[in-house]
Amino acid sequence: MIDKLLYVCMNPNASLDLVNGWGAHMRGTIEALLNIGVNVSTIMGADNHSKVLHSKFHASSSGSYKELKRLMKVAYLISKDNILKKKLGGKILDNNSPVYERLALPSTAIGRICKENGIPWIVEVNAPLALDTYFYGSLEKKIMAKMELPYLMLSSKMIVVSYWLANYYKGIGIPNSQIEVVHNGVDEKFILKKNNRSLVRSTLCLDDTQIVIGYVGNMAHYHNLHTLIGAFQELISENIKIKLILVGNGEVFEFLFNYTKKLKLDDAIMFTGQIPRDEVSGYIDAFDIAILPGNPPYGCPTKLLEYGARKKIVLAPNVEGVQELARHMEHAYLFDQTNMQEIKKGILWVLKNKIQAYEMAEAFYEHVCKNLTWNETAKKIVSFY
User: What structural domains and CATH numbers belong to the chain?
Assistant: First the structure.
């Protein structure tokens, strides 16, 4: 087993201080590597890209101008990549460690340094950059599509977080022998945290008799939260006594907040906004049912594993990435995320079949604790060097 590793992510925003799922993923991986005895050093994009980048190309506008600024940002990053390569080359050689890179095109500096100097280099991919419409505009996608394959072909190995991704990359030409599937995990300390259900419910002015459905995490369009709110409106109109708590922030937060007001659901739906990472487990404890209303088919949703780690009844979309983590009616109730009535049906099933739902929650908890911790992920990573 290797005893040291250099973890790198050259996205201009990459920092271990990020409070979103992306930051939690990087911290979880690094902490787990440390736990199993690997000495980890890091190079992060936020520390190595010019501050000019953020001020010149911040895409706060909308429409075609926003896409133009994003395209200009990609062009700027490509133009500065050789400078970045020179800046980081000495650091990487002096570190004298195998390299683990979380993919962040358009920068190719890390891969070029590794290949030129015979350094073992594994690339982690969490989403198909050519398809990921959340992060990239249409012109950017075309650029990424041209850069992605030749860059990944250079790597010693590439790690993907789902079998969907593995099949996708095989389909565009990556050899099967080069691809390894390693699912995301959950921190073992998160599993062992004290249950804070009563404290959080008291903070939120909820008594223990109220049935609470909850969501925790980033709020992006692909999480399908607007459809969940629509299903919730129908349940409330049918006099189903439940409360919905949405914990977190993101690109659709303002839309969802205003949508809730428009539907006059203020008393039934609560938005907490962003909370400290240390408090996430307590908010999940406060839920009776934890829901993930939507997910891309290629994604490996860490929040699903966190729900399982806190022994929650789980509702989640019936897509490939989720199916790899939880089996329908064994670990969770899986529904068609494109159909609001199916989400509603899932909620009603859980409310009417609580004993079976709790048995599923127990089974998922056991599965997560045994197979889906960050420490298990770290062991797999080091085995590939």
Answer: 4-182 (3.40.50.2000), 190-371 (3.40.50.2000)
